[in-house]
Amino acid sequence: MNITIIIIIAVAILLAGIFFVRKNRPPVKTRVDDVDYARELLRINLLVRETIVPASIRDAVEAIVDTLFRLLAMFENVQGQGSLEWVVQRMITTYLPEKALRPYLALPAEERNGENNVSALSEALTGIQAELDDVEAMIEKQKLSDFDQKAEFLKRRFRLD
To answer: Which of 56, 149, 158, 161 has its CA 20 to 30 A from that of 22?
Structure first.
């Protein structure tokens, strides 16, 4: 049998398996309110992809979105993190789309791609990613005593009140 046909069949079986697993996976649920945070994250990702932005900005936003998806799933399995969960949810609904991205995306294309604007947004996104990485590590290590302190710090840093 031709090796090409075998490879094509293997790839088709793999893709069918991935589709089946994703189709049967339950959606990420939220406990605090009726906002569909997964849908909000997809909207943010789509907003960046529909607008012509430098690859570094797109990649940074996608990394943040991936981290936020992981955090939403982690919150389902951890008790006593309410204030920290609230901060992450505000990051999804308010800070990332409205305070970090919208002003940048509203700029004309030539200004949006200017070195100063790209640099400023890159720094902001790097800061967001660093804080989210800290939150993720805290949850993985189950440092429950640090949740409220970290939540208060993030509220103040990103002005989420």
So the answer is: 56
Residue position matching structure tokens 């604007």: 117
The encoded tokens of residue 68 equal 């936020």
The structure tokens 């939403």 sit at 72
Burial level of 117, CB count in 10 A (0-12/13-18/19+)?
middle
Any domain includes 119: yes
Query: The tokens of 160 are what?
Result: 């989420």
Q: What is the pLDDT of residue 131?
A: 85
Buried b (16+ CB within 10 A) or exposed e, 58-70: eebbebbbebbbe
Residue 41 burial (10 A CB sphere; 0-12, 13-18, 19+): buried
Task: Give the residue from 90, 56, 81, 94 showing the smallest Cα distance to 136.
Answer: 81
Give the residue numbers spanning the domain of 116.
Answer: 31-157
How many domains is the chain partitioned into structurally?
Answer: 1
What is the length of the chain?
161
Average pLDDT (38-62) is 88
Q: Please report, as a single letter, which amino acid is at residue 19.
A: F
Considering the entire predicted model, what is its pTM? 0.69
Is 83 within the bounds of a domain?
A: yes
Residues 136, 69 contacting (CB under 8 angstroms) = no
